[in-house]
Amino acid sequence: MIRIDAVTKRYDDGTVAVDRLSLDIPDRAITVLVGPSGCGKTTTLRMINRMVEPTEGGILLDGADIRQQPVDSLRRSMGYVIQNAGLFQHRTILDNIATVPRLLGWSKQKARGRAAELMERVGLDGSLAKRYPYQLSGGQQQRVGVARALAADPPVLLMDEPFSAVDPVVRKGLQDELLRIQDELGKTIVFVTHDIDEAIKLGTMVAVLREGGRLAQFAPPAELLSAPADAFVEDFLGADRGIRRLSFFPADALELATGPLVPLDADAERLAAGADAPYLLVTDAEGRPLGWAEPGVPLERDRLLDHGRPFRPGTDSLRTALDGAVLSPTGWAVAVDGEGRAVGVVSQRAIGEAIRAAHGRAATAVEAAR
Ligand SMILES: Nc1ncnc2c1ncn2[C@@H]1O[C@H](COP(=O)(O)OP(=O)(O)OP(=O)(O)O)[C@@H](O)[C@H]1O
């Protein structure tokens, strides 16, 4: 664990960048520092690897004051990734990634072998190894930055706005990749961003800082969304807080109706069984949804209503299920299994009830944790 203990940083010109900040950063999880420009995020991150020294307070790594350790060995235990990757322009991609292993005295061959392995891990094609940074896209350069930070397998990764300079689509790809890598490697990651959506997507824990380097709230994302500590946090979280919060509620508790599912070639008896349902979900021979039909109307493939975007109860959230229902012309969402076969349907109203129940459970859990 990294313990930031009542740390204040006052720069020489008197600017208080961080004010009595205390945070316990858990191991093997992503902790995000988020807040408006100038609230001291970068200063906090840099105090962890001693690029900046606190004016007051201290930082403990696994119980020991980081000042007791030589700064070189401290920094080697902490990979560092910055915006625009900060690559060495005159070195190839492979040699950029191999930088720290080479500094540690690994042979060129071993360091390059490790670099090649890391290129694969961060989703970079091996054919890019001999290129120079300027020959890569911004997103690819950022991946090189992550690979370089991971090269010596440090337990801690410090990331300062690493994905801010790329477009939203590339950014989403990089975020997904980071979550995948984190699943495999389980690093202790401290991630700085000014983007609350990025914080909520990536963070196991999120620290919201306010101007003057003061902590506004430190909580898991679902708790931030359900119980913002004050008006500043609420405002910073922005609109759609309620809808976004649904991403944290799994869809597997929804009660699915199977009565309305009918195959395209259903006989009269089978159709009669579904006559009470407001709509029938027509499926193909494999059970995949084709579209909606009204009971009593003959089933014809080209007269079916679009079934909208289905959700998967085991993996998707109530947000996805609600989105499916909202987009569906019938107001019912379709649930499918991993193979895309329909397993049931659920109405907007039933989703609404599940949402209320989930809110109730979450409120009880937050209350119990206090
Ligand atoms: N070397 C320095 N000397 C004096 N003041 C500084 C120095 N570095 C940062 N500051 C000030 O400290 C405050 C916090 O800066 P910091 O870079 O930590 O904020 P930040 O939250 O990372 O901001 P941003 O999101 O804009 O990067 C700001 O007011 C900044 O101007």
Task: Describe the overall structure.
With 370 residues, the protein is of the alpha/beta class. The chain folds into 2 domains: 2-248, P-loop containing nucleotide triphosphate hydrolases (Rossmann fold, 3-Layer(aba) Sandwich); 252-355, CBS-domain, CATH 3.10.580.10. Helix content is 36%, strand content 22%. The chain contains 14 helices and 15 strands. The strands form 4 sheets. The protein has a 6-stranded mixed β-sheet, with helices on both faces. Strand 12 and strand 13 (289-293) form a beta hairpin. Helix 13 runs antiparallel to helix 14. It is globular, with a radius of gyration of 26 Å. The model has no long low-confidence stretch (mean pLDDT 91). The chain binds adenosine-5'-triphosphate (ATP). Residues 11, 13, 15, 17, 35, 37-43, 194 line the site of adenosine-5'-triphosphate. Keywords: ATP-binding, Nucleotide-binding, Transport. This is ABC-type quaternary amine transporter. Residues 2-236 form the ABC transporter domain. It comes from Streptomyces malaysiense. Belongs to the ABC transporter superfamily.
